[in-house]
Q: What sequence folds into this?
């Protein structure tokens, strides 16, 4: 990632703004049409700076798309066919990339599942179907995900804090010792989650 652009999703498109390196001011540069399956629920950038993941689901079937940054300017092109079979319910995706970009993880609202979807680094094609593992959350608690910088662990918050070790070959998560972690406070899906 260059840190030169900020992207924001509206109901029907993704807009790009150039960041002024001196004062941080923004200049609108371009807009890209969103998939037609529903309102965009989330966008996230590939840590290697090649792809932008776009998740939809509100008002239509859930779908995950990858768009490739084709030049040094914020030009996006569809990368492979959209994946519409990850979450069975018409709910939001909250995708996060693995540190090496080999997988994109999707938390499915109202399923209590997270899915590891393989990413073809050559052309951006997504695996035909995601491989799921339970997040420990009940219905409506499958969204918030965060991956450690070394790509070894993913954490999820629902009514508890859950941690998983990740298989680098398959992307599958396995509960780490002591998980789920229940503290002296009540967690919920609305609690933001970050790793430092």
A:
């Amino acid at each position: 990632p260059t840190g030169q652009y900020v992207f924001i999703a509206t109901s029907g498109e993704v807009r790009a703004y150039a960041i002024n390196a001196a004062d941080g001011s923004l200049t609108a540069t371009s807009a890209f049409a969103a998939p037609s399956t529903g309102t965009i629920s989330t966008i996230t950038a590939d840590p290697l700076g090649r792809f932008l993941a776009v998740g939809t689901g509100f008002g239509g079937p859930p779908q995950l798309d990858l768009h490739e940054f084709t030049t040094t300017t914020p030009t996006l092109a569809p990368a492979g066919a959209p994946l519409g079979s990850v979450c069975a319910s018409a709910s939001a995706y909250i995708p996060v990339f693995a540190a090496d970009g080999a997988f994109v993880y999707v938390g499915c609202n109202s399923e209590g599942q997270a899915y590891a979807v393989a990413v073809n680094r050559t052309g951006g094609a997504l695996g035909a179907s995601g491989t799921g593992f339970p997040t420990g959350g009940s219905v409506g608690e499958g969204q918030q995900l965060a991956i450690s910088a070394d790509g070894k662990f993913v954490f999820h918050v629902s009514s508890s804090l859950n941690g998983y070790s990740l298989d680098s070959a398959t992307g599958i998560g396995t509960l780490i010792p002591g998980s789920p972690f229940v503290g002296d406070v009540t967690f919920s899906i609305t609690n933001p989650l970050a790793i430092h």
